[in-house]
Amino acid sequence: EIFSLLLLLFLLLLLLLLLLLLLNSYKYFMLRQMEKFLKGQEIRFTEGLRIMKSKLASLQNSVSKLPQPDPALVDSPTTCPSLDAPAHGIKFGSKHFVGHEVHFVCTQGYQLVGSSTRVCRENGTWSGVSAVCKDISECASNPCQNGGTCVEGVNQYKCTCPQNWSGSHCQHQTQTDVNECEVYRLDQGGKLCVHECVNVPGSYHCSCPSGYKLLPDGRSCEDVDECLSQKHNCSRGTSCINTGGGFRCVNPECPRSHGNISYVKTSPFQCERNPCPMDSRSCHLAPKTVSFHYLSLPSTLQTPATLFRMATAAAPGRTGPESLRFGIAGGNSRGTFVMQRSDRQTGELILVQQLRGPQEISVDVEMSEYADRSFQAKHVARVHVLVSPYSF
Ligand SMILES: [Ca+2]
Ligand SMILES: [Ca+2]
Q1: 152: which residues sit within 8 A by CB, 6+ positions away?
Q2: What angle do CA 335, 341, 346 make, to 5 degrees?
Q3: Distance from first CA to last CA of the chain, Å, rounded?
Q4: Half-sphere exposure of 116 (CA within 13 A, CB side)
Q5: Per the database record, which ranges form the Sushi domain (predicted)?
Q6: CA 346 to ligand 1 center in whole angstroms
Q7: How far is the CA of 248 from the centre of ligand 2 (A)?
């Protein structure tokens, strides 16, 4: 048993010896590798050193060619020139030796421009640039928008905004405006504007269509009478007729001659029949006078409305007709008008149906004279109704 134990011990010892041997050879291998690596490094370093040396030599060469500085200046100074505190500022640090620092601070309301810290350098100069204390003008950049006024404060500014603007820079429009046009749109009682309402911040105004002017009440529109104000461009021989929103140049023509009936123009708006042959009944029945009338009406005028009156008067020294008959001779296919007697000598043309503009309509009104119940003469009035697009 002791023998086997000794054998085991011997075997273990042998194994340990073998292990040590193995470790030693590995170490040796590693050392060789390291040696190789270091050798390589050494070669590279030597090479680098050689290049450096040659560069240094060439540099020294070039330096030696430069003019030699004054030996007095070569002596390194030990102080820098003294520095003053900037106006409206304070300086910290009183030593001006090389390596020392000085600091600058501006008093309230002033801003430092330049270097706040400066170091005295080896060559006797200060690092950085000189410090200046500038008055802080926060408003210099015009920070307030939309007409705001900038007010300077301590290290800040404040914008005083005009009406309807707010925000730190007056950049917000405040919704204080009332759109009167929208609010009163449905108010039937008092329409703000007869034509168009224009909303503006803090107010509103009315506008009129072209050819109309706003009345002093600020809400009503009135047609411009171009004929009265000589703003028309009607050529000679035509007559200006004012209409709602514009004007018209007219030159009405007399009825065409046919048979022995012919007319002559006696005024810009009147034609008279030439004398008839005694025996021509058709000529006597034809209108003795034809007159032309122009009526400018607003759209949707309230009906009934008397538009036109036709009358006759006895010529001086002559007795007038004993009776008159009035009627509509043409142009009333839709029953828009009626003609009725208003007194013994006068007939009235009455509009009985609303006319929506813009439109034009013509109606011929006639008046016949009778004496002793026998027909004497007929007069025709041609009425042109010009309806504007607007109800004002
Ligand atoms: Ca408004
Ligand atoms: Ca007009």
Answers
A1: 137, 138, 139
A2: 120
A3: 142
A4: 5
A5: 78-135
A6: 53
A7: 9
Question: How many angstroms separate the alpha carbon of residue 242 from the centre of ligand 2?
Answer: 5
DSSP letter at 252?
P
What backbone torsions phi and psi does residue 205 show, to the nearest 5 degrees? Answer: -150, 165
Q: Which ligand is nearest to the CA of 184?
A: 1
Question: How far is residue 103's CA from residue 117's CA, in Å, rounded to a whole number?
Answer: 5
Ligand 2 midpoint to CA 356 (Å): 18
The DSSP 8-state label assigned to residue 194 in this structure reads S
- What is the model's pLDDT at position 186? 65
User: Which SS3 state, helix, strand or coil, does residue 73 take?
Assistant: helix
The predicted-structure confidence for 359-391, as pLDDT tens digits, reads as follows 999 999 999 999 888 999 999 999 999 999 999
pLDDT at residue 303 greater than cutoff 70: yes
For residues 326 and 337, is the Cβ–Cβ distance under 8 A? no
DSSP designation for 356: P
Nearest bound ligand to CA 247? 2
Distance CA 341, CA 365 (A): 12
Asked whether residue 58 carries a pLDDT value surpassing 90, the answer given is no
pTM of the model: 0.55
Instruction: Count Cβ atoms below 10 Å from residue 128 Cβ, excluding itself.
Output: 13
Tokens 């029949």 sit on residue: 273
Question: Ligand 1 mean position to 179 CA, how many Å?
Answer: 4
Q: Each residue of 242-284: pLDDT tens digit?
A: 999 999 999 999 999 999 999 999 999 999 999 999 999 999 9
pLDDT of the residue at 73: 47
* pLDDT score for 354: 94
Q: Count of residues for the chain?
A: 392
What's the CA-to-centroid distance between 167 and ligand 1, angstroms? 21
| Residue 136: HSE in the Cβ half-sphere, 13 Å Cα cutoff | 16
The token pair that represents 46 in the structure block? 């030597």
Pair 165, 173: CB distance under 8 Å: yes
Sketch out the chain's domains with CATH numbers.
74-135 (2.10.70.10), 138-173 (2.10.25.10), 239-313+321-387 (2.60.40.60)
**Longest alpha-carbon distance in the chain:** 188
Rounded to whole angstroms, how far apart are CA atoms 242 and 315? 32
Q: Which residues surround ligand 2, an ion (CB under 5 A)?
A: 223, 242
